[in-house]
């Protein structure tokens, strides 16, 4: 039951997060902006459209969007979003969680290279390098949480109770800060990448999907909404207290995820994109912050 | 009985090259392949039985050599290391029918003969339980491998790689001589067995150090790896698959075996071994990303994987030192599982690279592209191999790495180096994704960058069949990881840790496999009738192959900005100068930093210093006979006169 509820929340509300970010940005800029549900309209339109394929592409090109949706969806089932235990939880599931995103990265970048386009190649080179730098930050954070909770499953590791907050508040704050940077980097948000930009030379994620159209592009859009939702839910899980009632927990998760969306929108409104050469420095800083969290809890 | 079957198989393998060596035609090759398949089947059943039953069989017989005993011992650990030898041996032999056929290659018989010796030598190394027999088998293996690496000896580069390999392997063997002498001094016999627990810390540390050096050369642990990329890249591809998939692992086997002989180790050994492994993993994968030659890139990735295995061995040592049996079991199980998995996917990748070389005639990544459409079968299995090598869920590499992570994170809960190790392995994993996306993308995706690539042809049946077998194995072990649970529990002797984890992880893995398959099929159906146009390329309608991102540009971000300068490729730029610039050049030299920037200059300096010894080398036979006579005289004098010296005094 909780599994169905959790799946429904993730599947149905993920695109809403994109709408919240866009709405926050337009409010800060003093515009009324597109409707909150714009991402749903876009998806509906894309799924109905025909597509054009590049003549150089093979099956790998189509595997990219498919894996980009499946991987974050499965990863969401490893998180305890509605209830104390995730639907697919097991001891050591944190490893699978991290590697599912690596799988998605393999296929989206391979799909981009399948077009033979120079621009998409640029995006691939950046995506691969930056993601590699973000990996230790994610892992250090998970290790610190594992140490705090003494558990190897995301379900118990992410439900941080009051006593743990009291004991390791500094470490937890560092983890959340580091993971927020990882969230921005992994989901290609400002200051790492500007989803609104139209200059291919500077883009990361958007430039890798230039050749996808129609349903394939719809899946890519949906996949990135899911990924953003899952990363936000990961942070939300650390912050939120748990009631044990699945409906209440699901609602709380959804609320917290949308709040994170507002924060992302505020960040995007208040700062510019970093120069590409500065990006690795920020990511290494995120790893160091998470590393400090580990040092604090090992003390 | 089991051991007898294994001995018969080893004899069959040793003799398997004879038919191909004696006859020129196709019949000899088929006969040789049949012998290898028969030997491998026998060996696999012996090893499989040992792993299934957990029984150890021993045999020994007197031998006409002084101090030697023909002692063999087949236990689950040995059986675990026998599997890759026989599986890859059989598949490489079949592959050779298409890749190195006697009609085209004059050296075909020679390659088959030495491959047989290599396989027999490797199998004997694993079951030898007497130092003399072990060293004889070790040298048979090493020298057979030398002749295999030097197959195309008309090429200067091949000869250089082969000599470097020979020097490295013999330096390692020297350390092994010392190792066995020290162990004999402790045990009083050359029979291999446990060292008494009362042995001093200095002796046991010396044994471990000698084992790490001697076996580390074979395993390719950084910084003893410098011979490996050249040797594995220049051997015929089916031999590379054997070298990388099976022979490297014997270095790991030696290290594990010696650790098991030693009494309860101190914890810091584990720390040292984990550090060595992490260095290998990170240096290996960093260098793999910048390679311009596909086989060298695969060889560096082998160094990374050996590093991961060594980290697992280090975890095993930590578990033994702290007395936590589950931790030791996780360490050993992940080491063994990764040995198996690496041999499967690296065998697949090297054989796949062989098919690419066969189809295009080049190993240079920057000359390829778009091969997936010219070689659909090879391309598809290469993608599977790349997923496995990047340790991604769905293929076998992920399963063994997640076992290692499980152990590392458990240990990290107590603090210490395991915390850093887990994060660094994660970094290496992310870099491996980058490395294999680059390889797959530049070789198989996009547009052909040269005429060779544009006119590439798919490999013949005998080359495709082993690839498909390996790809199916990679996926099967990745989606149904419980297959290996029983064998891993037999080897480690601990139950209740590995099997439950493998069972738990298979549910989401199977869900992922099914969901991805469904999504791909659905997307295929949706785009079946879609029109095909040129790549959009931001409105430029006539993109050419030269406008694609190349393999070097894909790795440029990483190599020129993030890599320590010591590991970067050497860039030689002549910038245009003066008011009317005339010419400019740029060349990238992807060398082996440890061999070419440290060892080479050092060796050159030593060679210059040793020049004064040249008068000894006159090239006249009579003079060398004189040397031998003098040496003989000196040793006779030493043996006869020396014992009486004391009496005289």
Any key phrases for this structure?
heterodimer, A: 299 residues, mainly alpha, B: 649 residues, 2 domains, two-stranded antiparallel ribbon, globular
Widest sheet: strand ordering of chain B: 1-2
Shape of chain B: globular
Structural class of chain A: mainly alpha
Q: Beta-sheet strand percentage of chain A? A: under 5%
Q: What quaternary form is this?
A: heterodimer
Number of helices of chain B: 24
Number of beta strands of chain A: 1
Rounded to the nearest angstrom, the radius of gyration of chain B is 26 Å
Radius of gyration based on Cα positions of chain A = 19 Å
Main sheet record of chain B = 2 strands, antiparallel
Main sheet of chain A, how many strands, which sense, barrel?
A: none
Question: Would you mind describing this structure in some detail?
Answer:
The complex is a heterodimer of chains A (299) and B (649). Chain A is mostly helical and 299 residues long. Chain A has one domain (2-298). Chain A contains eleven helices and one strand. Chain A is globular and about 55 Å long. The mean pLDDT of chain A is 92. Chain B is mainly α and 649 residues long. Chain B folds into two domains: 1-209 and 220-249, no CATH class; 264-522, no CATH class. Chain B has helices at 2-15, 18-22, 26-53, 76-99, 108-127, 131-149, 156-187, 201-219, 228-234, 237-261, 267-290, 294-322, 325-360, 371-374, 376-389, 396-412, 417-444, 451-454, 461-479, 485-492, 498-526, 551-562, 593-609, 621-648, and strands at residues 57-62, 69-74, 532-533, 570-574, 585-589. Chain B has a two-stranded antiparallel sheet with strand order 1-2. A two-stranded antiparallel ribbon of chain B has the order 4-5. In chain B, α4 packs parallel to α13 (325-360), α13 packs antiparallel against α19 and α15 (376-389) packs antiparallel against α17 (417-444). The termini of chain B are far apart. At the A-B interface, β1, α3, α4, α5 and α9 of A face α15, α16, α17, α21 and β3 of B. β1 of chain A pairs parallel with β3 (532-533) of chain B, so a sheet runs across the interface.
């Amino acid at each position: 039951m909780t599994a169905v509820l959790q799946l429904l929340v993730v599947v149905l509300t993920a695109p809403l997060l994109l709408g919240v970010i866009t709405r926050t940005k337009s409010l800060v800029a003093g515009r009324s902006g597109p409707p909150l549900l714009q991402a749903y309209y876009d998806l509906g339109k894309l799924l109905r459209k025909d597509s054009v394929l590049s003549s150089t592409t093979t099956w790998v090109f189509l595997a990219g969007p498919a894996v980009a949706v499946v991987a974050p969806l499965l990863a969401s089932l490893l998180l305890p979003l509605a209830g104390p235990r995730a639907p697919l939880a097991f001891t050591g599931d944190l490893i699978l969680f991290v590697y599912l995103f690596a799988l998605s990265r393999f296929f989206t970048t391979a799909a981009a290279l399948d077009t033979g386009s120079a621009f998409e190649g640029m995006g691939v080179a950046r995506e691969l390098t930056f993601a590699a730098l973000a990996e230790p930050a994610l892992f250090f954070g998970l290790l610190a949480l594992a140490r705090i909770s003494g558990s190897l499953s995301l379900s118990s590791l992410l439900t941080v109770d009051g006593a743990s907050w009291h004991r390791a508040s500094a470490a937890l704050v560092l983890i959340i800060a580091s993971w927020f940077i990882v969230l921005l980097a992994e989901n290609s948000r400002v200051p790492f990448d500007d989803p609104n930009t139209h200059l291919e030379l500077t883009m990361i994620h958007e430039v890798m999907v230039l050749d996808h159209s129609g349903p394939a592009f719809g899946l890519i859009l949906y996949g990135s909404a899911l990924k953003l939702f899952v990363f936000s839910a990961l942070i939300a899980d650390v912050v939120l207290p748990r009631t044990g009632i699945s409906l209440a927990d699901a609602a709380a998760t959804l609320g917290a995820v949308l709040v994170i969306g507002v924060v992302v929108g505020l960040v995007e409104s208040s700062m510019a994109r970093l120069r590409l050469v500065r990006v690795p420095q920020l990511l290494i800083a995120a790893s160091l912050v998470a590393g400090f969290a580990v040092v604090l809890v090992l003390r | 009985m089991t051991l007898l079957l294994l001995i018969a198989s080893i004899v069959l393998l040793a003799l398997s090259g004879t038919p191909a060596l004696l006859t020129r035609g196709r019949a000899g090759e088929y006969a040789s392949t049949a012998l290898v398949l028969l030997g491998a089947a026998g060996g696999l059943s012996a090893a499989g039985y040992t792993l299934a039953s957990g029984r150890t069989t021993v045999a020994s017989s007197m031998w006409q050599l002084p101090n030697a005993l023909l002692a063999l011992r087949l236990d689950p650990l040995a059986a675990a290391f026998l599997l890759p030898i026989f599986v890859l041996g059989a598949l490489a032999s079949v592959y050779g029918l298409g890749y190195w056929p006697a009609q085209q290659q004059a050296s075909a018989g020679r390659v088959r003969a030495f491959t047989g010796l290599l396989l027999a030598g490797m199998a004997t190394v694993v079951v030898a339980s007497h130092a003399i027999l072990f060293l004889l088998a070790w040298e048979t293996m090493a020298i057979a491998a030398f002749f295999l690496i030097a197959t195309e000896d008309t090429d200067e580069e091949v000869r250089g790689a082969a000599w470097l390999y020979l020097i490295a392997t013999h330096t390692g063997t020297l350390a092994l001589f010392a190792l066995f002498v020290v162990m004999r001094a402790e045990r009083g016999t050359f029979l291999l067995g446990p060292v008494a627990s009362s042995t001093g810390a200095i002796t046991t540390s010396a044994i471990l150090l000698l084992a790490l050096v001697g076996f580390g050369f074979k395993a390719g642990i950084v910084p003893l790896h410098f011979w490996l990329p050249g040797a594995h890249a220049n051997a015929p591809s089916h031999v590379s698959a054997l070298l990388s998939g099976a022979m490297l692992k014997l270095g790991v086997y030696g290290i594990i075996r010696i650790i098991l002989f030693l009494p309860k180790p101190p914890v810091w050994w584990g720390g040292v071994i984990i550090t060595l492994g992490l260095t290998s993993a990170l240096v290996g994968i960093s260098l793999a990303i910048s390679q311009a030659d596909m086989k060298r890139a695969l060889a560096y990735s082998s160094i990374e994987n050996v590093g991961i295995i060594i980290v697992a061995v280090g975890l095993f040592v930590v578990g033994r030192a702290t007395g936590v049996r589950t931790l030791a079991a996780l360490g050993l199980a992940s080491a063994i599982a990764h040995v198996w998995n690496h041999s499967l996917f690296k065998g697949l990748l090297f054989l796949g690279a062989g098919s690419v070389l066969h189809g295009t005639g080049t190993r240079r990544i920057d000359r390829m592209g778009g091969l997936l459409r010219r070689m659909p079968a090879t391309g598809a299995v290469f993608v599977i191999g790349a997923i496995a090598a990047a340790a991604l869920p769905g293929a076998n590499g992920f399963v063994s790495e997640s076992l290692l992570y499980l152990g590392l994170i458990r240990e990290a809960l107590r603090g210490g180096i395991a915390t850093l190790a887990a994060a660094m392995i994660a970094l290496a994993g992310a870099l491996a994704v980058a490395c294999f996306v680059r390889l797959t993308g530049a070789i198989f995706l996009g547009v052909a960058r040269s005429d060779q690539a544009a006119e590439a042809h798919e490999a013949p049946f005998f080359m495709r069949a082993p690839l498909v077998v390996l790809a199916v194995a990679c996926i099967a072990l990745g989606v149904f990881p419980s297959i290996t649970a029983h064998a891993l529990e037999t080897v480690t002797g601990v139950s209740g840790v590995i099997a439950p984890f493998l069972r738990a992880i298979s549910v989401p893995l199977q869900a992922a496999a099914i969901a991805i398959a469904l999504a791909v099929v659905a997307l295929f159906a949706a785009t079946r009738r879609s029109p095909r146009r040129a790549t959009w390329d931001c409105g430029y309608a006539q993109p050419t192959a030269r406008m694609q991102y190349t393999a070097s540009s894909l790795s440029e971000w990483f190599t020129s900005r993030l890599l320590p300068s010591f590991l970067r490729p050497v860039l030689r730029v002549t910038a245009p100068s003066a008011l009317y610039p005339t010419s400019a050049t740029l060349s990238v030299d992807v060398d082996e930093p440890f061999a070419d920037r440290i060892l080479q200059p050092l060796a050159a300096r030593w060679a210059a210093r040793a020049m004064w010894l040249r008068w000894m080398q006159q090239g006249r036979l009579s003079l060398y006979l004189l040397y031998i006579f003098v040496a003989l005289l000196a040793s006779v004098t030493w043996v006869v006169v020396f014992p009486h010296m004391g009496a005289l005094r």
